[in-house]
Amino acid sequence: QGQLVESGGGLVQAGGSLRLSCADSERTFSNYIMGWFRQAPGKEREFVAAISRSGISTYYADSVKGRFTISRDNAKNTVYLQMNSLKPEDTAVYYCAADRGVFFSRSLADRSTYDYWGQGTQVTVSS
């Protein structure tokens, strides 16, 4: 079913910024709602942000609201996560995911909503 490939992770100091990218190699990208999740060591995978197929609607976890911005470029088959004012607690492996559903709702915070996942990219924020 093709790959979602994340990039842009790395090591950054607290207060810094990173931009993650997720490229979709095979799907008709604009037909999918896209989301970002993260998983810290010893913790469950948690929702970060989601964006509608057109890019008009977005939805964020409270923990990142005002600091992170999700966006997409359907011409490039890519979704982005701009992360500003990073904190040590943002340290995690970040995953992008694709949902072939049509409804943009709070169910997008549930990882079971998504049909395809990338392999993840590590983000480490030092204090």
Structural commentary:
The protein is an all-beta fold and 127 residues long. Helix content is 0%, strand content 46%. The strands form 2 sheets. Strands 2, 4, 5, 6, 9, 10 and 11 form a 7-stranded mixed beta sheet that branches.
In angstroms, what separates the terminal alpha carbons? 39 Å
Helix amount: under 10%
- What's the Cα radius of gyration? 13 Å
Number of strands: 11
Mean of pLDDT = 95
Largest sheet at a glance? 7 strands, mixed
Low-confidence stretches: none
Structural class: mainly beta
Strand percentage: over 45%
- Give helix and strand order, one letter per element, not per position: EEEEEEEEEEE
Q: Given the structure, what is the number of helices? A: 0
Shape category? globular
SSE order and pairing:
Blueprint: E1 4-7, E2 10-13, E3 18-24, E4 33-39, E5 46-51, E6 58-60, E7 68-73, E8 78-83, E9 92-99, E10 116-117, E11 121-126
Parallel strand pairs: 2-11
Antiparallel strand pairs: 1-3, 3-8, 4-5, 4-9, 5-6, 7-8, 9-10, 9-11
Defining key terms:
127 residues, mainly beta, seven-stranded mixed beta sheet, 11 strands, 46% strand
Outline of the structure:
This protein is mostly beta strands and 127 residues long. It contains no helices and eleven strands. It has strands spanning 4-7, 10-13, 18-24, 33-39, 46-51, 58-60, 68-73, 78-83, 92-99, 116-117, 121-126.
